[in-house]
Amino acid sequence: MGTAQPPSYSRRNAFVIPTGATERDVFGSLAGLYTVRPDRTRETRCAFFDSFDWRLYFQGRLLYRSGGAYTVSDLQMEGTFQRLECPEAEPLRFWWEFPESPLRSYLRSVLGPRALIPRGDLLLKRRMYRILDGNAKTVLRAAIESSELQNGGGGVAGPKVLFLAALRGYDEPRDRVMGKLLEGGFVPPADSYAAVLLRRNGTTPGDCSSELSISLSPATRTVDAVCRILPAFYGVVRRNEDGIRRNLDVEFLHDYRVSLRRARSLLAQIKKVFPRTALEKVRGDLKSLAQRSNEVRDLDVVLLRRAAAWRELVSFMDSEEYRERFARLQGFLREPPWSGECVNAGLPIVQTAGRAIRKSYRKILESRDVISSNAPPERIHRLRISCKKLRYLLEFFVSLYPQRRTDSLVRRLKKLQNYLGAYNDYTQQIGLVRRYLATLSPEDSVALHAATAGGGLLTQLHHRREDLRGMIGPALARFCSSRTRSEFDALFRRGKAWRLEAGGPGA
Amino acid sequence: MSILAIYNIKGGVGKTTAAVNLSYLSTQTHGPTLLCDFDPQGSSSYAFRIEPSKSLNARKLLQGGKHIQRNIKSTDYPGLDFLPASFSYRKLDPALSAKKRPKHRFEEILLPLRAQYANIFLDCPPSITLESENVFHAAELILVPFIPTPLSLVTYERLMRFLAGKKKGNGAKVLVFFSMVDRRKKLHRQMVEELRGGDRNFVDVQIPYSSEIERVGLLREPIVASHPRSRGSLAFHSLWTAVQDRLT
């Protein structure tokens, strides 16, 4: 048995205290029934962690470190599922850094290879009260909790909540007090404690991907549509910079790069919207930003020699050049340049988008023979890029079309892309092993062993890559079938400009 | 998990004070603790400001189960629960006589509570009755407060004779501590000197006769909580250490 437990303040017996309400407002209605006596005050600091993609949160769990112990609780910070004393000075990042324990096993099952990222520090202040009957006997305990989420850039006040801790044998006073509070207009919290805190902090769990969620009207001018989409990508780029600098998780760099690529893809595929010379500059900037992170990303895949490449990237991100390039990108959006060649700029976006999607799909259709003809990996790589471009277009303009129909197309495309992506990963790894083998000296006996091992690895990688070719075939055939073709035609054909009058995707 | 009875044939020897303070200390060191007030006078109930139970009576107490569970109340001290007394406990002996295995009824009704608490304390009424025999069987340790006077010695010897004549081993459960010791009185000093070390049931712990301890009844709080640095409080800490040593 452990030592005396503190009273369990249940968030199930909790009431939201409106901003500005005083202690008197809260307990005023109890006058004449009970005496409310202030007890002690307690301050607790908790540092919260979750993965890049909020895996714990989506499992309905919070992980926090407080007073040298890690705790996994529910989203109300109430039920403790796992607890581990861990007096390490530095927070642990991966599940395998935790000592052998049920908490470690749990993190292993949920996090996999993902790192734990600091999500903010919470300062909890609890003022306790004892509610006494006529005998001065405590019949109920209460606590008013205020909190502040500190996330580096300042604090955000959390919800102020009143908790009641019922005492054994004193259900009646608890029910009476709860009744009085409800009569007084105090209501139980509608949402989980964690959700309220995060909302106040402006954080949306799961808001980690570079997925686009911009709703466009079909009649929006193309230039306006492009100028609305691009800032969303730039926003994702900026949001991920901190994660890259602090080397928290490889996924930050991934999303950073995806957003740059998407921005470039949009500018490349929606043509004749900006003057060529101005556009080239912007695309050059985007390309340069992406290129500087190539090496870190390549080394992420095989986890070799990454540290040096990462340091180089971070120093670039801190450089004047980086700031200038970004300033240029932003300036371009503030005043989009125009000249006579920008014939598409004023057209409704539904028209330009449809045309670009049809063209992109046509390109994939033209590569249909890529499997049957035993094409070299370079052609499969080009097919992968074409698919990626089409996917981006479908995502950029998803708000213009009925979602159920685009979803079905995206699902098929995604499957094909997964195979193509895995094929590409193997190609990359084969290239890397080959480059490594080329550096080995034939005189060195250790190098000879490395060469033998490298040769074995190459054979394995080749086999696996060729197996994938067999899977790409059927997926590509499905995506190029007459059924899919007619679906593309029906959704994106030229005549679909009628949607302008019919009122958009819902029609 | 242990059941500890605070018992003496004599009244007014500091049983309730010991029960209240030791149960509080048990909560601090061992976790959830229950104090059962079996004395119809309800002194412990008064000390914890808990009203004697209206729904619990001698008959229901001996039925145990839900009748006990429903009547357990939290004290003001987290982790310390309390089963209040009922005035009808004065009729416990006739009720016990009507039961099968009348000397073991307490053992049976306390059994389900063993899983819920780290320690259970029994504050017993002053007498030597069937109820007392139940307490002797149920408890792992019988704590006897002893005022250092010759009359107390007579009562103690009577108790030991009684226990020796009953079940074997019950005598070994007894732990005697000096209670209400007034160091100004020569008699008290002499008795303490004579008995400590002489009888292996005695522990060398002296709960002083002090105004702070007397005020427990007025403050209605354990002295170990209200005056943690007082002489009385320190003496209860020593007593609790001695009790733990004996239990291990």
Please characterize this protein's 3D structure:
The complex is a heterodimer of chains A (507) and B (248). Chain A contains 17 helices and nine strands. The longest helix of chain A is centred in the last third of the chain and has 36 residues, at 403-438. Chain A folds into three domains: 10-200, Beta Barrel (Hypothetical Protein Pfu-838710-001); 209-347, CHAD domain, CATH 1.40.20.10; 369-507, CHAD domain. Chain A is an alpha+beta fold. In chain A, β3 (61-66) and β4 form a beta hairpin. In chain A, α6 (222-245) packs antiparallel against α7 and α14 runs antiparallel to α15 (445-479). Chain A starts with 9 loop residues before the first strand and ends in a 5-residue tail after the last helix. Chain A is globular and about 90 Å long. Chain B is α/β, with parallel strands linked by helices and 248 residues long. Chain B contains 13 helices and eight strands. An eight-stranded mixed β-sheet of chain B has the order 3-4-2-5-1-6-7-8, sandwiched between helices. The relative contact order of chain B is 0.18. The chains are: A alpha+beta (507), B alpha/beta (248).
